[in-house]
Amino acid sequence: MTVAHARRLTARYNNGTLSAFAALLARGRPSVRLPFALAAIAALGAARLQNAQPNFSDSAFLAHHNESGPVMLTVVVIDEPDRRDTHVNLRVRVDELTRAEDHIPLSVYGFALLRAPRHPPIRFGDRVQASGLLQAPPVFEDFDYAACLARHGVYSVVRGYDQQVELLLPTSRQHQRL
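Predicted structure:
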């Protein structure tokens, strides 16, 4: 956790802490206790909502690198693969990103949707290396695909440009779901 992130968390929870403290002070007066308790709950809910929003300006956040050209990603498959006729959609957690322009690996965090070939079969829990273009999910005229993926914490998709997927570390069979 960075110092800036810790300061934001502290500032966000101060309102809730102050409201809870005020409610404790008013514990002798029942008519005042309920408004303070409701204010504390609302402040904590607002702080939780604010904390759940992604920080796109954080260079360690994956979506910060959307539209930055060809990349190589080291990922872990975090959901069951969505098998289609011609490909497989994988929801992945990205651990490392290497841009083609400088070849310097960056430790990143975030989720992406990766379109992979059907073979070799990739499973839940596998560690994979993938190359392609990191892009923001598209918004269509009649459907907001970006908002749909954002509900699942996905703000990036890996597509096109000499896309390759290589299985690095398969999940052992004993950990597979039956």
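Summary: The helical segments are 3-25, 30-52, 145-150.
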